[in-house]
Write a structure and sequence with these properties.
The complex is a heterodimer. By secondary structure, chain A is an alpha/beta fold. In chain A, 17% of the residues lie in helices and 29% in strands. Chain B is built from 33 helices and 26 strands. The N and C termini of chain B lie far apart (87 Å). The chains are: A alpha/beta, B alpha/beta.
Amino acid sequence: MNHFESQCLAIKQANESFLLHPHRVMYWPAQSVLFVADVHVGKEHVFGRNGIPIPGGISERTLQQLFALAHSSGAKRLIVLGDFMHNVPLHSESWLTYLSQLLDEQPDLTVDIVAGNHDRVAGRHLIDSRICWHAEGIVLGGLVLRHEPKDDTRGYVLSGHIHPAWRIGSVRRGGIRAPIFWFREGHMVMPAFGEFTGGMLIEPDSKHDKLYMIGPDTVVQVPANVKPRSRWRIN
Amino acid sequence: MTPRGAIATTCQWYADNNWTVFDFQKQAWHAWHRGQSGLIHSPTGSGKTLAAWLGPVQDAMRNKQLAADEPLRVLWVTPLRALANDTCSHLQKTCDELDVPINVEIRTGDTSTSRRSKQRSQPPYALVTTPESLSVMLSYPGADIGLQNIHTVVVDEWHELMGSKRGVQLQLCLARLRQLCGTLRVWGVSATLANLDQAMADLLGPNNQGVLIKGVVPREVVIDSVLPDNSERFKWSGHLGLQLIKPVIKAIDNAGTTLLFTNTRSQAELWFQALLDAKPEWFETIALHHGSLDRKLRTSIEDKLREGTVRCVVCTSSLDLGVDFSPVDQVLQIGSPKGVARLLQRAGRSGHRPGSVSRVLCVPTNVLELVEITAVRRALQHGRIEARTSPTLCLDVLCQHLVTLAMGSGFTLNSMLAEIRTTNAFARINNEQWQWVIDFITRGGQALQGYPQYHKVLNVVGTYRVMNSEIQQRHRMSIGTISSDTQISVAFRGGKRLGKIEENFIARLKSGNTFQFAGKHLELVQVRDMTAYVRKATKRSNAVPRWWGTQMPLSTELADSVQETLDLWRDGQIESRELSCISTTLEMQKQWSMVPGPNDFLIETIKTREGYSLFFFPFAGRLAHEGLAMVIAQRLASITPATFTLQINDYGFELQSPSPISFSTEQLKNAFTPEDLLEDILSSMNSSEIAKRRFRDIARIAGLVFDGYPGSSKTSKQVQASSGLIFDVLKNYDEENLLLDQAHREVLEQQLEYTRLESALKGLEKRQWHVNAIERLTPLSFPLWAESLNSQTMSTQSFQARLESVLNDIECAATEMKAEI
């Protein structure tokens, strides 16, 4: 078992094995594919352009982490389930050259990006021979890869889009709120990869859903039916 | 006509109306004619409005033929939009009666665009406005409606503004006006404060002289209380107080009009509902008033109050202020008064006629509040009223103000720095901080260097300006420093607005769920466009929105007085109705543990079903206790590894551990050392979320977070991020960002009252320590034990361990519940 695998939680869904990694990516050993969603590269620049000062360098670090994971997982193919970019980038944005450099470093890695709501238009502005854009999603080995979570007759769906997060207990009282891998009956939702992305608390189906919560260096399955404990109600 | 003649005419008008001219009013008028600025302090309803207003009116009287193009002369700044209408008509009425042909208008966020443009072409003589609207006026090129001709600014209820960032914003605007206008008189009107000199210096700037004018002697205030019939069954904890609803109803019944003040908005909702349930026939004559309700609803209630057609208004601090509302007959205060000044202010709403007595009837919600009522009376007798301090170096407010000015006439660096240094808030800003602020608004701070697309404020040949219209629009919308969480409107499906609730509360509800708001039982239909659509519910609900940040701490003055009162009771030197009512309870405290006075530091220890508890009673107010509890928990946990649950109230705090803990008095004393206090607080803060929560307001004020509005463009949606996320990003990528620094400072000073905490800790060293192992929870410790809802956990455990312990906790609860069934 390599280092990447040792950090992962192995699970089975739709008769396939997946490895869930705490850095918010999922590996599919059967086809050597690394899945990631909602990277939102360039988001800080969109803010900056609009007069909201967010420090730079976030995009570079995000990309660096992503490609390092692609390398350490041994993946042959990296598939982004939408929202790779936050918006149409300007030529001057420094991460563009950095991305090119990273792609050069791993010439054997195939990169596919399924367009999401943020980069359906933006994708047309990032033309690179080493990146394959998919406007409609991909069907691969019985799985459907798309951005918006929705069941599909063609197979089990892997998706992103909603940046799922889950909370156990009250955060003020030592509880935990963290991003999750959200596995439902007909589809699963990846956590958002980008560092500068928020999360949305989901409303799971407590009977059928499986939630895998992400800690700093571990992924743990947590129950979907727990309610925060309240000892007394004082009025 | 000479000033003297104009004053004589005014006095004649007073005489015609059979009113007395107070000396302080004459003083104020003379000072105004001499061109002076100053601060008038006097109780509510004593004529301080006229003291400040008639100077400029007399001036207009002297040249009766005001030119048709007479520019704007007087700016009247009021802290609440709700007060603007009343103020405006009050000021106008005086002029009409004195037959001075000047008009007074309003300019607030509610003023229509057409009205504003009319004000631009035909400026009124005086304009009633709020600090935020003044700021917006400064954001227009050419300073909008000719602010440069103003000769007088009156700041009404300055004591309400000075302690907040809104006060800081106003200080900056006044500094601008002083530059803009040739001669400017600035007059503050304030209630009595302990530190009037500072209040005046904040208003006028440290280098300007002013006159302090003392109004009439405050009316006598009588503090009374509703006592429970059966004191032995009176609650030891809790904050609602419905136990005493019967005597309260009786009191309301016996008076003409009543204001029933509560400490929180949820408490107001619950009391309103309880009164309706008990007296359904009062449906038409009782009303609810709090800050989250829609302005129209509030205005209609204020009107009814003025007409005298309402029997009782249940309200919060939203009615603390008011332009001489026709007096109510009676003021009731539910729960702890929290501070002497606050109770005085509320009491002042009754019996407005000069010479009459102000009366307030306090309704305790638990046993210990009866001690507070005696204590507040005692503090008042000794004239101990709280001082108000004002924040300094709020860089978020400065960032916002500079962008505002860059949108207006623009500014140059040196003169701007000199200008802001004329305010008390920024007199001591150093060059480094100034440079950081300029970097932040021009280049987005150090971290954005080399990033050319950022262009909020541009340096155009030495003058700083904002050119981008979208940035301008967004900035104007977010001007204002009043903090609020993301609020969403509540409206009936027909469109009638009821008010605003925190998004967090609505987020927890599903369609079909019911809750209580605006005095109604409502059912959520759907949430769309930042609005929660509701309909009247058919079934009742006990869910009431909780508004965060409404809990204010017991003031130092009152807390000290509580301890002295306890001391005097112990020695049999004080008697009051309240104390004799609860003597049994105090006796219990004495026998089971002790009744601590100002020279005692009481610690109680006990093992309960929930775990092992340590109770500490420094009497330093809930904010200081919060920080203290975190520090002490961390220091004790370094002796024996443990997870503590913290509980806090105004008298003390509790540390509870699931596993056995025991510390010697020596160890406890060591944990309470003032040494390394700051470092320890900062390190314990890192493991908590407070700084992040505090950052919310800062991020909004400094323009890092922008609340969307219905119909906002796609771009504006794409640049929305939660302040928490931005906090994390700044921490990782721009650690030197001074706004983070400010968040920490604010947490220390405001959230944790660091100065108070430090002095409390120093004081504790000198006290006599009593570590009492108790057999059952005492009247002092019980409320803490029961107040678990506010508890926080401090833990140094890993994610995995924390997750396990939370899950374990939840499982236990589930098992317990099953067992109970």
